[in-house]
Amino acid sequence: MIVSGRFMEFVALILIWVLAMIAIDKIKKGWTVSFRRIAGLDALEEAVGRAAEMGRPVHFTSGLNSLTGTWAPLTVAGLAVFGEVARLCARYRVPVIYSVYGTQVIPIAHELYKQAFLAEGRPEEAKPEEAIRYLSSSQFAYAAAVQGIAERERPAANIMVGPFYAESLIFAETFYRVGAIQVAGTARLYQIPFFAIVGDYVLIGEECYAAGAYLTKDPAHTGSLFVQDLGKMVAIVLGVIGALLTTAGTKAIVEFLKL
Amino acid sequence: MSLAYRRHLPIIITFIMGIIMILQYFIVPKQPVEPYQITMQKVGETLTNWANLLAAFTIGFGMVNIALIHSRHVSRKTPGQWYYSAWLLFVAVIMVIVGIGGEPALGINVSKYQYDWMTTYVFAALSGTMYSSLAFYITSACYRAFRARTIEATALLIVGFITLMSRTPAFQAYLPQVIEVADWINKYIVKSSFRGILIGGALGAILLGIRTLMGMETGYLGRRD
């Protein structure tokens, strides 16, 4: 019934799912797992605090976001980070500016923003009509608009988590010039080096996807992070064994994974 | 509104639709033959169309958002902003009028030439300008980043220099060995690093999807709990 060539993918998906449920169940029952700190996510409070001290806003962008494209998971990850940023901004009474590229996230961003202020007990201070700004769905018109916000409003912190393309370095350099601390993260391979060079804190690939679980600090969610790391170890072992076997002249692992 | 309506119903819908799309990927080949495969393919295409329609519907949110924010700037004469907002609103209205006037789908062909002209000679030209300015941002970023202060920064400087020089005609003509070195770095070091990041990212996306289907990741609903 499974399409030829996708059987091992199906097995891997089921295995990951079952392991995630087992890990979550064990953690709920008291099993403790320690994780390395993700500096970029820990720095969010530092960035918002800096903005509060300087009396300047915080800028957030989730890049060329889309909830229906290939990078929809990265957009969801960016929204998870925005939820945390909005909550911190509500707590420290710092204006936040969310520059929106794709219109699909506007209602979600509005809701996250209002929920954040509600959670901090300040629903009357929420101004989503000023914070959530749709700029453009054209890449470089969006980039120009973000640059304009950076130059005119001079945010003290710039947080960028999501799918970015060529405009990533434009943002990073512009916000560096206005003196903003930058937390940047993406899973798009060709933009990660740019963020690593110019960002104060960087989230590389999987760290963006882990944000939702990491920031909620819910023990159940961290079970999925444990399975994520387990999957990486399995991938490393398979890679090493496969490389050795291929060097020895047999493609057993490759053929097995192609089932 | 009850919790069942606000929270549980959207999660149930997400779970059902997610399972359908996952099953569609695993049981429908490129050329479906069996009746159940054809049915699943049609269901998947319908759901994808629904998603695209919903996404297109949200364009209205964007238009309203722009109109509200920028008309507020104009009415309050926000210093350093209001004239940009006025110009944006003016050009947006012009483009909408010209665009509708030249829309073949509506059977109107009054201003198609003007729309094409504005798209090609104004919008595309400005986009190209922004893209080309990227070169200067890369230069300034490299100037700041390529400093031999630490071992990692020194390695970055050396590899960056080799890669840059391998693309210049002078080095390609008089020192072609640098091209081989750059290709080796790209083929073995860069590609292997990218694959490692790709595996980690793929696992992260899978686990995010599983958390979403299980109702643990509710950011897409506009709530963090």
UniProtKB/TrEMBL annotation, chain A:
- In this protein, which residues make up the domain named DUF6754? 5-253
Which keywords does this Swiss-Prot/TrEMBL entry list? Answer: Membrane, Transmembrane, Transmembrane helix
Report TM segments: 6-24, 233-254
Q: Which domain of life is it from?
A: Archaea
InterPro entries membership: DUF6754
This protein is called: DUF6754 domain-containing protein
Q: Which organism is it from?
A: Thermoproteota archaeon
From TrEMBL, chain B:
Transmembrane spans: 9-27, 47-70, 82-101, 121-143, 155-174, 194-214
What is the protein name given in its UniProt record? DUF998 domain-containing protein
Keyword Transmembrane helix tagged = yes
**Could you tell me the keywords of this UniProt record?**
Membrane, Transmembrane, Transmembrane helix
